[in-house]
Specification:
This protein is an alpha+beta fold. The protein is 38% helix and 24% strand. The chain starts with a strand and ends with a helix.
Length: 406
């Protein structure tokens, strides 16, 4: 009998297993994959996520994986580009990282095992077992094909947007905004990049980021309705988008070399799921999934794993009733992400910027401090509602108007 069975051992499940293991709980961590292995991902870990890696004692492993840190954002508005560095976190972390998932997920899974969790790779969960309406455990097959049944005080789905656990327990969905975009990406060598580059365009978004081993990750985002056309001829559609939206990046990409096949997806929902019930809970994309245009997935998974670990510790130790602790977990999760969720869904519509945004971008030219705060809204180090309040936007625009012309 385990305290917790966690289905999914990537960037939500493994940190949760690690944190529970460090508190002395008996944890079984399952994944159908084996590690190291890749999965479709934005890669980017914003500064608050990096701060958690540092607090958990894992940042040095990411830094040692030949993945360079970045502090600089270039936000290319078309006629001009804004450059700035997001403010650091409260504990002084100024760097972001974009590691390959084969690197990051292996680091996280190893940390979970080191904390005492039992990891079973190549394990396929086939059934969530119940008794009198409450979840009691799982039934599945190990990598040898043997049928296995295990029980726990709680079963946690950390198994992504298509979560088997969420479907099995019929977790209610709310704030569903549908699917807005699709994307493809690959990796290039010999593509110079100073920091993270963003190219928001009408019906397109281009992102370039540094990752392991000197490679540059380049992502193209299209409206979801274009997925079937794009996937029928990915390379041509990808390079056409670069040529039209980011010609300087296209030139650098052609001067470099693409090192791997394209990866991507047309399945990108935007929704919340109720993340707990009788004997079960959800974390990461299993409980809250959003469009990757703001690259929040990994950072949110770290944060919510920490929140859920705290709630479970309160319940397991008897300090709080389980339902109350998990209800507070849902409340804290939603309070943290709702402003970014609405902002992300708006950006994912890939529409032309409204007049007030055009005025703001013009006002930010030549102001690296406010530009840094602007990109800090995506990094998560500047509150969205604070920066985009009418009073703050008016202050930025009015101050810009008082500056002498260049």
């Amino acid at each position: 009998m385990y305290d917790a069975i966690i289905v999914g051992a990537r960037c939500a499940g493994s940190p949760l297993a690690m944190l529970l293991g460090r508190k002395g709980y008996r944890v079984l961590l399952l994944d159908k994959a084996t590690f190291p292995s890749d999965t479709v991902s934005t890669h980017h870990i914003h500064q608050p996520g990096v701060a958690r890696l540092k607090r958990w004692g894992l940042l040095n492993r990411v830094a040692a994986s030949n993945c360079p840190p970045t502090t600089q954002f270039t936000f290319d508005a078309g006629p001009f580009a804004l450059r700035g560095a997001p403010p650091p976190t409260a504990d002084g972390v100024a760097e972001a990282y974009a590691p390959r998932r084969r690197v990051l997920d292996k680091i996280l899974a190893d940390a979970a095992v080191e904390a005492g969790a039992e990891l079973r790779e190549g394990f396929s969960v086939e059934e969530i077992t119940t008794e009198d309406g409450a979840v009691t455990g799982i039934r599945g097959r190990d990598r040898r094909g043997s049928s296995v049944t295990e029980k726990a005080r709680i079963v946690i789905g950390a198994d992504g947007a298509r979560s088997f656990v969420a479907r099995s327990v019929r977790a209610p969905v709310y704030l569903d905004r549908g699917m807005l975009t699709c994307n493809y990406y690959s990796y290039w060598s010999a593509v110079p990049l100073e920091g993270t580059e963003l190219y928001p365009r009408e019906r397109r978004m281009i992102v370039a980021d540094k990752t392991n081993d000197g490679l540059t990750l380049i992502v193209v985002v299209w409206p979801q309705g274009e997925f079937n056309r794009v996937r029928s001829n990915v390379e041509d559609e990808f390079m056409r988008a670069l040529d039209e939206c980011a010609p300087s990046l296209a030139e650098r990409a052609r001067a470099g070399r693409r090192e791997e096949r394209f990866a991507g997806t047309g399945f990108i929902p935007n929704l919340f799921r109720k993340p707990y019930g009788d004997g079960w809970a959800l974390v990461g994309d299993a409980g809250y999934v959003k469009d990757p245009v703001t690259a929040q997935g990994i950072t949110n998974s770290f944060s919510h794993a920490e929140m859920l670990a705290e709630a479970l510790d309160e319940a397991f130790s008897g300090r709080r009733e389980m339902g109350a602790a998990l209800a507070d977990y849902e409340r804290r999760r939603n309070e943290e992400v709702l402003p970014m969720y609405e902002h992300t869904c708006q950006l994912a519509r890939l529409e032309p910027p409204p007049p007030e945004m055009v005025s703001l971008l013009e006002a930010l030219r030549g102001d690296p401090v406010e530009t840094g705060r602007f990109v800090g809204t995506v990094a998560g180090t500047v509150p969205i509602r604070q920066f985009f309040s009418p009073e703050n936007l008016r202050r930025i625009v009015e101050r810009s108007a008082l500056q002498p012309a260049a």
